[in-house]
Amino acid sequence: MSMAALGDVNVVPLGEADRSSLRALMDEQRADWLAALDWDLAEINSALLEAIRGGTLAGTAAVVGDRVVGFGFYSVETDRCLLGDAFVTRDYRRVEILECLVDDLIRRAAEVCGHRRVENHTIGLDLDITDAVLRARGFTAHERDYLVRTVDRDGDVPSGHSRVRLRAWDDADFARASELIYQAYRGTVDAKLNCQYRSRDGCSDLLDALTNTVWCGRFDPETTRVAHDVETGRMCGVAVATRISDRTVHLGQVSVLPVYQGQGIGRALVRSTIDAAARNGLEVCSLAVTRENHVAESLYRDLGFTTRREFRVYTRDATR
After folding, report:
1. pTM of structure
2. Of 150, 218, 268, 275, which one's alpha carbon is 20 to 30 angstroms from that of 18?
3. For residue 301, what is the domain's CATH number?
């Protein structure tokens, strides 16, 4: 497909953009994510449109002529500003449009939250364009892999573990799981990328997003697995699962307490999730892993996960 003529690019607040045009852009993005990641954005897009209607979503739309060709949004949190996806329709997808979106998003966010840390965790489908724009604006890139494997029972490979009891999620698990995630991730490479891992409140917010919102798929308590030490009863591991399409379960968080790491508990959690997904009729399991986390990367590949997509997380530390 040939590129459309660029013309003058204007940026407007997201709430001022034509709603039908935004819906069409989101439908296009949904099709792209389904094809690339087996990830259905239908519920997320419905939530975005509702937030735009209610005036609670901060963001920017790019307009060429009278056509809305792109949009982006951001959220302000206690310790950071989180840039959401900046999506541009296919025939206008080039550096100039994305630059306009990103610059306006950063400017608007700075007016609200000052010059605190900025992070972007979106799985970019146009890696080269996104990389050029964000690096030029002082962001550091961190390599991640989006991994998948088919959901089938491991057969003669047990999904249990002699030291722990594995079970499905219960609502009463939230507080202990949040503390577990904090203990598992503090001081790790992932805490350098995602500042939520650096505090108990941040880990609580992260777990709340996984279990009580649709931003990382629909939470699946039956497939989510919790590990308890059979001798002490202590919660020592958790694998949080969400459904991101009719056939795909996503592992949004796999955590094991430090004193229990290296004993095969993470492996047992993932296998148990896969078995539970198979019993519930799902076909694919996905997850994302930071490439510098060599232990986790090695574990997932040993369990049969392969790369579906390479992407990058971007961070920019607070400026004075």
Report:
1. 0.92
2. 218
3. 3.40.630.30
